[in-house]
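Case study: SIS domain-containing protein.
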Amino acid sequence: MSDSKLAGQFFDAAIGLLTRVRDEEAENIAAAGAAIADTVEAGGRLFTCGAGHSSLPAQDVVYRAGGLALMNLLPVPGAVGVDVMPATLGSALERVDGLASAVLDSSPATAGDLLVIISLSGRNALPVEMAQNARALGLKVIGLTSVAYAENTRSRHASGGFLRDHCDIVLDSKIAIGDAELTAPGVDAPFAPASTVVTSAIMQAMLAAAVEELVARGIEPPMLRSGNVDGGHEWNGRIMTEYRDRIFYRH
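Here is what the predicted structure looks like once written out:
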């Protein structure tokens, strides 16, 4: 069986996007890492959120091997993934005014904390309102989005603004509108989205920058180890006990 031409094209497209982000967003990623390090050093808490498939890169940095133990998911009921039925309800909830306010108000997030908001389009009510309200509460806000949407689509928020308009630091994923990298004869719709690959890579790069910054300041970053490595559970238990006031995924 010969290699798939389209599979190779997707890898090329993803690698191209990763290279662009590495080169063009390096300064912003470093700034985001420094902001996370500032929050950790000051005793603040770290949160991340995303709706729909944008929740996947958020979940990827929470309670995972090799991850920063202090990253907490700020879940939005019904909008975190495709487990809600029907799946289209999750998309509809992203456009509901007031939902982000209710989630923030019932969360442990407070002034001095940091929130990473992931939204590919950044145009729906949920991410825009989340960013607005988080900053009003005194949180530092990092937005991970595709700036192309803000430049070429209309906002669905009453303010007319996008996620990027209400962040302290913006990270641009460079994903084109429509989030599909390939086209082919016989297929009427573009396909092969790369946003999850690229956005997850940005999240990990940002945390790597934060780890580097903490070490430079003489602070040992509280990292988690794999539970499938001998001693991993014991290591993680110690970290979670030591930082229990800043970890919310374990009661």
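For the exam, be able to explain this: The chain has a mean pLDDT of 94.
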